[in-house]
Amino acid sequence: MASIAARPSRRTDIALRAALLSVVVSAALLVLKIAVGLAFGSVAVLGDGVDSAEDLLASGLTFFTVRLALQPADDAHPYGHGKAESLSALSQAALIAGGAVFITIAAIRRLVAEDVEITVAPSLAAMAVTAAANIGVAAYAFHAARVSGSVAVAADARHLLTNIVQALAVIAGLVLVGVTGDHVYDPIVALFLAAYLAWIAARIARSALSELIDTALPPETVALIEECLAHEGHGMRGFHNLRTRKSGRQRYIDLHVLVDPAITVSAAHVLVNDVERHLRAAIRGAVVTVHVDPDEPEHLHDRGEELRD
Question: What does the alpha-carbon distance between residue 239 and residue 226 come to, in Å, rounded to a whole number?
């Protein structure tokens, strides 16, 4: 059996920079929105400020879990620390869902309240700054997630997209309040935001859970692996027991190859190296583990049973 892992890219530190930038921006927006929401009466702005407090916690968690996930494998964690990123994404989902509950309660209280006063202009200014800041950070986070393959940074980027949508919705509600003079639009917008947050939380949680339970790689990736294995130049007679999974940014490929039972161990080793080389070229960053089986009747029978199952 042979196993070879590709070296981590030097560009993976972009994930740390993206996480740190998100922490700094979330902290600044947290102070701005809570101060404006309390001073000028908008429950939607205040609710968005509470969401920024969650963003700050989530971004801090992302920063530390990305650092942990980048640590090399050790005796206690021979497969690395990649699942820390999935746990971070799951925690972010819980934080977003908690924010949805808080905003819902605040909005319902505002709907039944009387003599509500909202100063629109400063609230609009705060939300415009929020939208612009989140657009910039989200763009960088998505770029960092594509470059590094970080699950945690990708979840944080999707979280930042919710902030942009929230900011635009709050701006629309404040404009309606300013134009009509009816303060009911402010809590109504807040309720729509709560529903949107709950939906995003469910999506992030589902994605994180799929990796924690070792879901196979996407069908298109598996098809690419099978196409690579069908290459006649490898010298193998077939393959079976193909298994794939993902842990954080790391992808794993395990399989058995069938070879001529008369070849030497040295020749089998060369064959396996060729298979691994092609797979790592097709699926960059993959950890490939290949087991050699002789192409004999009992293995063909086993292979047929597995294909029927």
Answer: 9
pLDDT tens digit sequence for 61-112: 666 666 666 666 666 655 555 666 667 777 778 877 887 887 788 788 878 7
Q: Is residue 34 within 8 Å of residue 46, measured between CB atoms?
A: yes
The C-alpha angle 224, 228, 229, rounded to 5 degrees, equals: 120
Q: What is the pLDDT of residue 6?
A: 41
Instruction: Round to whole Å and give the CA distance between 271 and 180.
Output: 75
Query: Helices 219-229 & 265-282, crossing angle to 10 degrees?
Result: 140
Contact criterion met (CB below 8 Å) for 53 and 102:
no
Mean of pLDDT values over 115-134: 83
Q: What is the DSSP string of 259-270?
A: E-TTS-HHHHHH
Encode pLDDT of 170-216 as tens digits: 888 888 888 888 888 888 888 888 888 888 888 878 777 766 666 67
Which residue has 């070792």 as its token pair? 214
Give the β-pairing of 238-247 and 2-5. unpaired
Reported in sequence order, the residue ranges of the chain that DSSP labels E, i.e. its strands, are 2-5, 238-247, 250-259, 287-294
CA distance 24 to 290: 45
Structure tokens at 256: 């058995």
Q: Is the model more confident about 131 or about 250?
A: 131
Contact in structure between 43 and 184 (CB atoms under 8 Å): no
Tell me which residue of 238, 250, 264 sits closest to 84, measured CA to CA. Answer: 250
Please state the three-class secondary structure of 7-53 as a single string. CCCHHHHHHHHHHHHHHHHHHHHHHHHHHHHHHHCCHHHHHHHHHHH
pTM score > 0.70 for this model?
Answer: no
